[in-house]
Prior knowledge:
Layout: E1 9-13, E2 16-19, H1 20-37, H2 42-60, H3 64-86, H4 100-118, H5 120-123, H6 135-153, H7 158-176, H8 180-205
Antiparallel strand pairs: 1-2
Helix pairs in contact: 1-2, 1-8, 2-3, 3-6, 4-6, 6-7, 7-8
Amino acid sequence: xxxxxxxxxxxxxxxxxxxxxxxxxxxxxxxxxxxxxxxxxxxxxxxxxxxxxxxxxxxxxxxxxxxxxxxxxxxxxxxxxxxxxxxxxxxxxxxxxxxxxxxxxxxxxxxxxxxxxxxxxxxxxxxxxxxxxxxxxxxxxxxxxxxxxxxxxxxxxxxxxxxxxxxxxxxxxxxxxxxxxxxxxxxxxxxxxxxxxxxxxxxxxx
Length: 206
C-alpha cells in the first residue's frame, strides 16, 4: 500500500514505530473530536479525511468491524454536515425522550453485525484473508459508534455516554493490537468525550 502501509514508519517514540497512516489518522481524529465537543461543524470536515485513513489502517490489522464502521461514517459525515448547517444557530443538546426503541435497535444491530463480521473471512476469503481480530468487541464498538453518531448528529446528550463506552473499549483493543499511538488517541478522545458531556450538561443547565 506504499505510503499508507502500516509498515511505512514516520517516527519512533520510546521504541514504538509510528506509521504515517497511524500518525495522520490520530491527528485528524483528535481534531475532529475536539470540534465535536465544541459543537463546531468543522468536526465533519476533519472526520471525513480521518475516515479514509482509518479504513485502510483497520483493514491492514484485521479489525473489520472498525473498518466497516468507516463506510457508515462516510455517509453520516455528509448527513451531519447538512444537519448542523441546517440548524447552525442551535447548539443545544437535548435528551432522548423514548429510549426503548433505541435499546431494541442497538441489540438487533449488534447481533446481526457480530454474526456478519465473525464470518467475513468465510464469505469473502479473497478480500478478507484472515479472521477478524476481537470480533465480539470490535462489533460492540461498531454498534456503539453507529448509535452515538446518529445521536450526535441530532445533538442528543446520550451520544456522549456511548462515545465514552466505545472509547474505553477501543483503548484496550488497539493496545492489544500493538497500535499504541492509536490507543493513546482514544485515551484523549475519552477525555474529550467526558468534557463534551460535562459541557453540554452545563450549557443546558445555564
